[in-house]
Amino acid sequence: MHEPALGAVAIGRNEGDRLKACLRSLTSVCDRVVYVDSGSSDDSLEFARSLGVLVVELDQSQPFTAARARNAGFERLMAETDPPDFVQFVDGDCRVEAGWLEAGLAELRADARLGLVTGWRSEIHPQASVYNAMFQMDWHRPAGEIRTCGGDMMVRTKAFREIGGFNPRVIAAEDDEFCLRLGKAGWTLRRLPALMTWHDADMKSFAPWWKRTMRDGHGFAQVGQMHPPHFRRERLRVWVYGLLLPLILMAGLLLTPWLSLAVLMIYGLSWLRTAANLRRRDLTTGMAIRQAGFLTLSKIPNLFGMLMYYRRRLIGDDMKIIEYK
């Protein structure tokens, strides 16, 4: 009887030791591993080949996107003799937890309706910075049947092929967009209550956070346009807290200080409410206040990202990635 095979696709650029840990966590279990490189200048390619990993170097004349890289890795796996029935996708800055690959594979084997399984991602150094700590909070989502998940996922080959893989024009939230089409095609998506990957954000300054948050806004707009009403609530918050209230604040500076004061009070209440919600998730008071401040501020770079998407769409410009590393 045919034993379903498992392949893996890792994507990255200049990930250094993080990529080495990623590939080592895959090669011991997966039948085949592909590394897709987006123009690294370090020793990523040489190291991957030294492990017997198949390497794909993306054409640098075209815009890099995670979606394009994952598709290229999948096609390389499918070009092999006896391609795998299931594929684990993982970002090159993540190490796969021991036991996850076997657990995900068993779940997919047991339920033919399942198109995708995922698990929990955790930060390696959540206390290294407030930015890492925010990632840690964002990664932990409820287990069970889901509509969307992040890019670390194990997918049934048949399901991937049926929907045509990832959309290479989507530069952010491409995983959401992929999952939404998978669900619309009738497949079930499930998050298992198990640790799947360890992520190393290594984010220590404000500028990368700002750019990454801009990228999130671009995803809200682009994927929301493709799959309404997805991200509707996120977009509404951005329009209100990122555009409307700042405009009222500036108008108040010209007309009446009471108007500006009212806006500042709204921001203050939002900050306090967010901090209280974070405290209920066992954060210290100081960390909850800091994270709430960044979450309140995030609507501004979200707005810039959304406006960038609308401008690109209007003039027909390429959907290029927003670099933050």
Largest sheet geometry: 9 strands, mixed
Rg measurement, Å: 21 Å
The proportion of residues in beta strands is 15-25%
CATH homology superfamily of the largest domain = Spore Coat Polysaccharide Biosynthesis Protein SpsA, Chain A
CATH topology label of the largest domain: Spore Coat Polysaccharide Biosynthesis Protein SpsA, Chain A
What's the N-to-C terminus distance?
A: 46 Å
| pLDDT averaged residue by residue | 95
What does this protein look like?
The protein has 325 residues and is an alpha/beta fold. It has two domains: 6-204, Spore Coat Polysaccharide Biosynthesis Protein SpsA, Chain A (Alpha-Beta Complex); 207-315, no CATH class. Helix content is 51%, strand content 17%. The chain has helices spanning 17-27, 44-50, 66-78, 100-110, 130-139, 157-163, 174-184, 206-226, 232-254, 257-279, 285-297, 299-315, and strands at 6-12, 32-37, 54-57, 86-91, 94-96, 114-123, 144-145, 153-156, 188-199. Strands 1, 2, 3, 4, 5, 6, 7, 8 and 9 form a nine-stranded mixed beta sheet that branches. Helix 2 links the parallel strand 2 and strand 3. Helix 9 crosses helix 12. The chain is globular. The protein starts with 5 loop residues before the first strand and ends in a 10-residue tail after the last helix. The relative contact order is 0.12. The model has no long low-confidence stretch (mean pLDDT 95). Residues 14-122, 150-266 form the Glycosyltransferase 2-like domain. This is Glycosyltransferase family 2 protein. The chain crosses the membrane at residues 238-268. It holds the Pfam family Glycos_transf_2.
